[in-house]
Inverse folding.
DNA sequence: GTGAAAGCGCTAACAT
DNA sequence: ATGTTAGCGCTTTCAC
């Protein structure tokens, strides 16, 4: 009698149906059951050659495109991965990672959904709802999630999470990043080794940039003495060529004698180089400039920009791999990867 | 007896359930029916204050996040909008639009799903499948869809489509863009009005850039005579500072006497300015340079870059508005918007 | 290799 | 204002 009820329901042409082609129709055309059609599309090796061909013909004929909402609901695998970045604008260091992530995921049949957190942590709750609500098969965060509330919600959701661009002893789940402290230290050492002694810093005001700066200052003081002057300017995110120019102008007005400048991003460094040229300073003769990010234009500036390179492509690839492996049910051997960094020596420093 | 079957099925704790909190559980906790809980979340004005409070308490208590896959399947409104861009990398003119689109959509409760087409039209079919399969409530394309196959599939899908960054007499659905021909013409006029007579062009090789270039050349010839020399270089996408430098170097080696350069993007223009400075040319005294896009850095170059400004923010806002209005069932008054462009006069030309 | 039945979690459609 | 019922289109489960 259950089947009686069900078939009766199926008989009266539903008024909720929106006229799209469904798997059931493809199956009917192919002369097989819906489940066989489903298998022909998802696991063709489980289906006989004859059935396979008939289903494929029917798909071709109808232009059928599977409804992934329905598929995701039934299988609880949405084939969607979410990524959260501070901003989508040009000239941010994260874009290389996003590009790589998109490509790696597409290869495995996943689609990327991009969310903007904004540099201020406002609206984070709404963004998390929008993400969790779609039941993505993975979530990639730029930076680590600090709010306890956010961490709890993500953990409760059961979504595989990859935090990136940082290291932390307490990741939510998986992690691929590098040490910002070590970057600051390495840059201070680099400039010192080049004989620079009157260092200045301009940097973003986000938490990771601050940690690089702090480490830079600490190391510089250990080289130059605890009472060394280390002028610094913090620039609100997002950093731009313009904010770099202005910050450097201000720095120079107050401290005209500096001989090296450590910048929080290549974009700001480009601004500083422009401002220096306008003022008739020679880079690197009068002023060494070092950036962060190794963006696409950095090698083509004049002088070519010495900078800290982060392999965003590798971060994206690794994050994608973590998520795909997890989805496949395979355990991920190492859940934390330190991707490292390198100082790319060019003309500017 | 139908209900008998249904309740029997509901009784045996399903082994497919994945332990997440469902609306049914929230409703039970609140002591109301599932549909009332649903209304409390989606259309609170239809629910009594008492019920509303009880549902909200239950949501708070459980940390319930609605499953949007299920909701989308049931309502055929996915609250998802897809956008296709050639590339996600930094320094492309489209990012301003994407940012604006993301924000406008978020305000209306939609989430953006970003797809990369790549500059080559390969894999377009797979991308369309990935998009159509998720039944987005709208699709924003950068540029117009040319392939007949693609147009047909989109039309058959019934998804509201907004083509952008171009005008065409035959849009698939909705359109917000500007005339690339008029841009080319206007730039030729501008340089001519500034007294420049030995013009050169370097430009991307994508279809829209080619149309700008063609119009530029035609107008320049009408000013200078049909036999005027108009050296030009096409650069494969994506254009970068480096490709701009190299293209300009090549151009200059073959035609050292040019006095104005029209660039297909601000990024290439920045490269040309750098190369000019390296060679000791003065911009704009020896060479006028005009770009395209008015990217974030353009006003802060030295000299500040004269360029063609496209209001990407307006494009994104308009596209979002088109889609949201369509989803609300309201007819969109004007389905085609010419957003125009302007030449921003700065120091470089 | 193939299929019938029973959901996945939600909302539209009709009650009341 | 609230509830009942019947799906949305797919896949899992279990049986053959």
């Amino acid at each position: 009698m259950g089947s009686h009820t069900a078939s009766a329901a199926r008989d009266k042409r539903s008024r909720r149906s929106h006229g799209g082609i469904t798997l059931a129709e493809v199956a009917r055309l192919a002369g097989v059951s819906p489940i066989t059609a489903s298998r022909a599309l998802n696991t063709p090796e489980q289906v006989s050659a004859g059935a396979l061909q008939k289903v494929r013909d029917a798909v071709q004929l109808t232009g059928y495109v599977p409804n992934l909402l329905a598929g995701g609901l039934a299988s609880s695998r949405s084939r969607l991965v979410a990524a959260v970045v501070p901003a989508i604008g040009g000239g941010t260091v994260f874009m290389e990672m996003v590009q790589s992530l998109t490509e790696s995921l597409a290869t495995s049949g996943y689609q990327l959904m991009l969310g903007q957190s904004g540099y201020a942590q406002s609206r984070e709750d709404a963004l998390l709802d929008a993400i969790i609500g779609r039941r993505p098969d993975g979530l990639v965060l730029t930076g680590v999630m600090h709010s306890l509330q956010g961490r709890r919600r993500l953990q409760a959701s059961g979504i595989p999470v990859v935090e990136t661009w940082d290291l932390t002893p307490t990741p939510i789940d998986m992690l691929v990043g590098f040490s910002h402290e070590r970057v600051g230290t390495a840059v201070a050492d680099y400039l010192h080794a080049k004989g620079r002694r009157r260092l200045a810093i301009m940097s973003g005001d986000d938490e990771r940039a601050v940690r690089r700066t702090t480490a830079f200052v600490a190391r510089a003081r250990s080289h130059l003495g605890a009472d060394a002057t280390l002028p610094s300017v913090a620039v609100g995110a997002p950093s731009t060529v313009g904010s770099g120019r202005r910050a450097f102008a201000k720095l120079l007005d107050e401290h005209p004698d500096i001989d090296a400048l450590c910048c929080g991003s290549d974009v700001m460094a480009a601004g500083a180089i422009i401002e220096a040229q306008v003022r008739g300073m020679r880079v690197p003769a009068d002023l060494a400039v070092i950036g962060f990010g190794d963006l696409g234009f950095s090698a083509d500036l004049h002088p070519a920009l010495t900078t800290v390179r982060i392999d965003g492509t590798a971060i994206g690839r690794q994050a994608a791999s973590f998520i795909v492996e997890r989805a496949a049910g395979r355990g991920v051997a190492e859940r934390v990867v330190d991707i490292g960094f390198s100082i790319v020596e060019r003309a500017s420093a």
About this structure: The longest strand of chain A covers residues 80-85. Chain A is about 45% helix and 15% strand.
